[in-house]
Amino acid sequence: MNLCSLIELELDFSEEGIELADKTNINNSLTSVIRDITGLIDSYTQGRLYREGVRVALVGRPNVGKSSILNSLLSDNRAIVTDIPGTTRDTIQESLTIDGLLFSVIDTAGLRKSEDKVELEGMLRTKREADQADIVAFISEPDDELIQEDLQSLNSLRKGTSGERACIVVVNKIDLKPDWRVATSNGGGDIPTIYTSAKTGMGFERLRSCILELSCQGNGASTDSCPMITSERHLRSLINSRECLIRAQEDTLAGKSNEFIAINLRLAMDSLGEVIGLVTSEEVLNTIFARFCIGK
Predict the structure, then answer these.
(1) Which residues partner with 167 through β-bridges?
(2) Phi then psi dihedrals of residue 95, to 5 deg
(3) How many of the other CB atoms lie within 10 Å of CB of 144?
(4) pLDDT, tens digit, for every residue of 89-141?
(5) Which end of the chain is more exposed for a tag (fewer CB within 10 A), N or C?
């Protein structure tokens, strides 16, 4: 607002040839504001997680223990568990808090070849949940042949809209083969692997810690020291504001008239007004009169 006030005041006194806003100072101020707004834009990824929770999809073949893992994570018998493959045919979503961070854990239908229409619909929903997840926990079991197939299936789910999605391989039922481990030759070396037993409770503290670690990777600074946005509407407004400020900076560097710069600054303030409240002409005038003594 201070910069806009200076430029509009200079326009009012253009006939007197008074320069109140040096182009170098304008450029430096715009660089600083653009940097601050970019920081807020970058904070949205982490902010959204704190507001909506981290989405964790439990994915895998039927009867590997996805529902049992959900129940163990929640310490509650939320999902129905039987020895019959395909018991879960629809998604079950439950909330979980780990170290103050909210997680939304989704139990999904098992992935396998099937002609059953209900089961096929369940698998479509599984793939949709995996596409929308922040973290995919692929549940398998201690078997050399099956783990190789599962890792191949997991690779097809790793690609997200903004890069590779965070993934975990969870080898359940490890109580049946306590010494079994995933061979590096199977191609899972770059994905965290957790060994669990829903029957004995083994490995679930490590699983919670791994989920928490993955959720914090690449999500910006800590909320303790930096402001953060959590609203998608605010994100769009900040992006629009930054684009206007970049155009204003380009006009400044190109040596264009202050009229062009003032227009883009006004548009930037309009977009910012959707975040911090409406910025009126009266506020701009008040800033001018607060900083300068202007006679009638």
Answers:
(1) 136
(2) -95, 145
(3) 11
(4) 567 888 888 888 889 899 988 776 666 666 667 667 878 888 888 899 999 99
(5) C
Neighbours of 239 (CB within 10 A): 14
Distances (CA, A) of 285 to 8, 41, 188, 248, 279: 9, 29, 63, 21, 11
Position 169 pLDDT exceeds 70: yes
The CATH number assigned to the domain with range 49-216 reads 3.40.50.300
- Say if CB 58 and CB 139 are below 8 A apart: yes
The pLDDT score that the predictor gives to residue 35 is: 94
| Cα first-last separation, the chain | 23
Cβ 238 vs Cβ 37: under 8 Å: yes
Top-confidence residue, 277 or 145: 145
C-alpha separations of 72 from 15, 75, 105, 108, 176 in Å:
76, 5, 12, 15, 18
How far is 248 from 225, CA to CA, in rounded Å? 30
113's tokens: 């070849």
